[in-house]
Amino acid sequence: MTTRPKALLLLAHGTNRDQDAAEALTLAGADPEILPLNLLRADRRRFDDYQMLVLPGGFSYADALGAGKLLAIDLQTYFADQIQAFVASGRPVIGICNGFQALVKAGILPGEGEPATLTFNARGRFECRWVALRPLSRTCIWTRGLEDILECPVAHGEGNFQAPESVLAALRARDQIALAYVLPDGSPAGGAYPANPNGSALDIAGVCNPAGNVLGLMPHPENHIHPWQHPRWTRRAGGRSGLTLFENGVRYAAQL
Amino acid sequence: MPVYRFIVRFRRADDPRSVGLLADARALGFSDLARIECQDLFFIEGQLSPEECQQLALSLLIDPLTQAAEWRELSAPPADPPPDALVVEVALRPGVTDPVADEVVRAAHQLGLSGVRRAATGFRYLFFFSPSVSIRESDTKSVPVRDSVTESVVKSVANPVIHRWALGEIEPSFPVEAESSSIRESDTKSVPVRDSVTESVVKSVVNPVIHRWALGEIEPSFPVEAESSGEVETLRLRGLTDEALLALSAERRAALDLAEMQAIRAYCEREGRDLTDVEFETIAQTWSEHCVHKTFKALIEVEDAAGGPPFTVNGLFNTYIRAATEKIAAPWVLSAFVDNAGVIDLDGENEVSFKVETHNHPSAIEPFGGANTGVGGVIRDVLGVSHKPVANTDVLCFGRQDASFDELPAGVLHPRRIFSGVVAGVQDYGNKMGIPTVNGAILFDPGYAANPLVFCGTVGMAPRGRRVRGPRPGDRVVVLGGGTGRDGLRGATFSSMTMDAQTGEVSGASVQIGNPIVEKGLVDVLLPARDRGLYTAITDCGAGGLSSAVGEMASEIGCEVELTRVRLKYPGLAPWEIWLSEAQERMALAVPPEHLPALRELCALHNVDLMDIGEFTGSGRLVVRYQGRVVLDLDNEFLHKGIPQRRLKAVVSRQPPVVSRQSSADDTDNYSLITDYFLALLAHPNIASKAEVIRIYDHEVQGGTAVKPLTGAQMDAPSDACVLRPPGARGRAGIALANGINPEYGKRDPYRMALAVVDEAVRNLVAVGADPARIALLDNFCWGDPLRPETLGALVEAARGCHDAALLFGAPFISGKDSLNNEYLGADGQRHAIPPTLLISSIGVLADVTQAVTMDLKAAGGLLYLVGDFAPTFGGSHFNLIAPAVRALPSAAGEPVPSLPAVTPRVYAALHRAVAAGRVRAAHDLSEGGLAVAAAEMCIGGCLGLDLDLPPGGPLRLLFGETTGCLLVEVAPEQAAAFEAGFDGLPLRKLGRVAGTPALTVSAGGRALFSLPVPALVEAWNTPLH
């Protein structure tokens, strides 16, 4: 029998989907703990007590100077060694929405020192809508083995993943494109709105690091963990739960 | 100390922000713009090496992949601007919250750039015109602007409100001919612009209420260290004549009438002294319409113009609103009217609260900030009952989006700018707080052009039994949250006055910009503080600021406060300004001294400021000191109960409405027009899809949204109500939220309007499966000047309608608010009042959210029923609004608006039983646009067609007339018998079937009338709002 892995959820100034992520992790079999950054700053050893690290969604520092930017500076200045050690140890890390933005702007994703960014949505506005996602990466421990399409909402204004052509090619070659926006029938979105809600290159919804233990994604699988959260449950639509992603990560953490 | 100026620009010229601005400017009617480039400005004061400047730019200010930066020391000569662009730079006025600047300093230090001292931000706009503008030398309106002009403009930013209008005034001193002769060829900064061009482009990006602007480069303005001025004035009241009393009220914008001023004079005479300005301002705020609702408490003598006997109403609130709640006496109502928000039981273990506020006047003069702080304020109301905010609602009323500038009163922002600013303000606050915005409405009427209405609602939830009882003597007076500035001074009295063209200038200080992340910190602190029992009383700092919050908390026992302990944003605040400031994101608490350290620790964890400003006493007096010196010492009894009851006169007209069920509309035999009417109705902005707004609100955060605002196969059809299962609710228990509002009815019959909107608010909840026996209501009246007897008469009738409808449905009011004086005095002396507007917000309970029903058609072959007493009328209908454009039907306009049939509650109860038994596939209410629009929306939701056969009667009336109390219901054929049996003795008729083909096909008595493909319905309904 495996024990429930402990997950550390970082609460920055303005994080707001922490409890959503905590519920998903609990259902997936982990023991989440939400810790304010200030508490972690006072006691740095805490990172070692956890098997998973989660950067939940929200508006850290109100998105001042670009979404995730100031949280990224926190990660780089206060916790660089701890996070680097956590990532290097192979333990699962996930950054959702604002957490993804912070991981990218801190250079933790896509990794290898390669430039990438999450910039303003192509349509220039925040948008909340449900999307379909195809898990692609077999390197990523969060998406490995997931065959079904996932459905869950996006809710962001700066989720447009962009990188130089060479970096995009390298991401593809290294199997780092973890999740892609697709049409509801599973065929590629081909950049077309609204299936690709923000104009991301290659329909990228999520990327992992080369080792595959760190995943960042813009959509919110933590908001599709109950059948009644699906937008068409009254039409008997369902399945495609976001919970599978968390179960994958928790299972991986439990066997480490 | 050197200042560095950084410009951050996107590498791509078509960055989304610039593209959006261009679209907005063009929509405002400025078609000569070819391109706008929007850049960010940062002014950094400090000792920085060139390397440090570069590090600052690359590590902090830009996204290196998409943006580039350039910088120079401010004193160095500026670079040449693009010769073909008009450059306008804009910065926030001093005192307006600039959270980004604070973050720049903090993060720079974090990066080791300790030389950074202060920061300020701004925007730089480059306007490029179509060739026809810049090359038209012969254009007589073209005014070449030279360096010196630009400089003088920049220099005058010290008074930006005047400056905005100064451009027109300086034109005569630079006559076209004289000026052009003095232009040197080499003057590269000269930009040909037209007055009107400059003014309109500036208007498209700047609001002088909060912004400073300049042509060309703007000078930075930094926040400065804070200390207050200590100045206290004594106001002589004893012995003043009545005229002098009124003059004093006007001079201090106190909005107090003669009787109220006389009561204050009498108090002074009793106490044997005059008042300090702190005391006078405190009384003015506490006694403002906004805070004390004196119109709703007034003794009203009502005259019936139709010849009925006169009568008196001793308080609209007690007579109609509270009376309804007391008569219904629902055991599940846990708190009505006494707390910051109404509270009902959810599931036996948890309770939910609901509050709806308006923020109309502030949104009129600064739409983003007004709506932003409106949302922030109502969230704090829910924190004031120690609840976690779980949902937001917003109902917005704007002027026509296609209004020309000429038809707007002077000094009024264009309704488009109000629309986009308000929506952005709602979005910003709700999304950043992590509260889903799940229900609302948007209405358009010319009457809202000068007075937009912004209703912000918040729902909260908490385990039962956690609300606090009240302060005890010895408890500390504690303020949590942001610093105090001059923002929001006299907001309570401001919102109680008629606005005019000078309002923006005089009352600019009444508008605040919110900082949702600070408020998010308050939530993070308050919920654990509640669970640990760290405080004994809590209330939000809203209108009236500390004076109102602390004054109310201490109203039973008394307190002493020291104002120098209040943290200030900047210097120079007089004591009365500190005490009255409505600076945002602050909560006042009573904290037992032994709990103060624990609370401080919590606050430190979440970056929340804690200010211990005084102590609750048992003295029965409110005492405020400044540096130990008493500046306010008022008797609580006088402050809170000393206001004289207003005596007002109202005129109503209770003529029995002329019932004419026959009009030329019924005789129409030109059925080819029917589809034209139909598509025009679907495209009417009040009816058309609001998806463009709904989708910029996060309606999924917290994971509780079971029925979303947009629903159906393509997730693009309008839900009647949203259904939420807030995190922490027992099992799958949940709530439903809806609203009813109808100014078209209000213009014609305020009594029936109230019946209809209560009905609509209830009906929407029943449609999604809420239990009609567990519905609570909130009333928000937005009205004109109640001193006008006809206006007050309409208010009396609407309040009476609220009472009667609430009793009919057994649905109690738990909270409410009124916003009066929604009027604008134009420069021409003409008054612009809003139509009588009553918003009823409703909250219902579902035992299991998975029993909810959505409005989209589910499957071909399903039977479609019309339930309810169907008596369509054209009075106040949207058909009347679109018909003249299609083909006028004049005689239909005089009909009465729908009445509310007494059978309606039994219809809803029967429908609810059918829903609970799983017999209902889809349900949708008939509202604006009538049966046809409801059927079309169900088709859009299901991507399915309908075959309908109309009952006898005029087809136009049946299709487009409006009713109350009716819904369309889809039922599976095998459930039809049981469904019909459930409506035994109740009005129900079978109208048709869900079609196998995607078309809405309508016949009457078997004769085909029309058929419209569903994609045509979708296209009409998706007509953009602006």
Helix/sheet category of chain B: alpha+beta
Cα separation of the termini of chain B:
48 Å
The residue fraction in helices of chain A comes out at 25-40%
Going by CATH, what is the homologous superfamily of one domain in chain B?
Phosphoribosylformylglycinamidine synthase subunit PurS
Please give the CATH class of chain A.
Alpha Beta
Question: What strand line-up does the widest sheet of chain B have?
Answer: 21-23-19-24-22-25-26
Write out the strand line-up for the largest beta sheet of chain A, numbering strands in chain order: 2-1-3-4-11-10-9-6-7
CATH architecture level-2 label of one domain in chain B: 2-Layer Sandwich
Average residue-wise pLDDT of chain B: 87
Q: What does this entry look like structurally?
A:
The complex is a heterodimer of chains A (256) and B (1026). By secondary structure, chain A is of the alpha/beta class. Chain A has a single domain, classed as Class I glutamine amidotransferase (GATase) domain (Rossmann fold), CATH 3.40.50. Chain A has helices at 18-28, 37-42, 69-78, 80-88, 98-105, 165-173, 243-254; strands spanning 6-11, 31-36, 52-55, 93-96, 117-119, 127-135, 150-156, 160-162, 177-182, 204-208, 214-217. Chain A has a 9-stranded mixed sheet, sandwiched between helices. In chain A, strands 5-8 form a two-stranded antiparallel ribbon. In chain A, helix 1 (18-28) packs across helix 7 (243-254) and helix 3 crosses helix 5. The longest helix of chain A has 12 residues, at 243-254. The mean pLDDT of chain A is 95. With 1026 residues, chain B is an alpha+beta fold. Among the domains of chain B are: 3-215, Phosphoribosylformylglycinamidine synthase subunit PurS (Mth169, Chain: A), CATH 3.30.1280; 853-1026, Phosphoribosyl-aminoimidazole Synthetase, Chain A, domain 2 (Alpha-Beta Complex). Chain B has 36 helices and 44 strands. In chain B, the strands form 10 sheets. A 7-stranded mixed sheet of chain B has the order 21-23-19-24-22-25-26. In chain B, strands 39-41-38-42-40-43-44 form a 7-stranded mixed sheet, with helices on both faces. Chain B has a 6-stranded antiparallel sheet with strand order 3-1-2-5-4-8. In chain B, helix 16 (367-383) runs parallel beside helix 17, helix 17 runs parallel beside helix 20 and helix 26 (672-683) packs across helix 36. The longest helix of chain B is centred in the last third of the chain and has 21 residues, at 789-809. The relative contact order of chain B is 0.10. Classes of the chains: A alpha/beta (256), B alpha+beta (1026). The interface between A and B is large, with 59 and 61 residues.
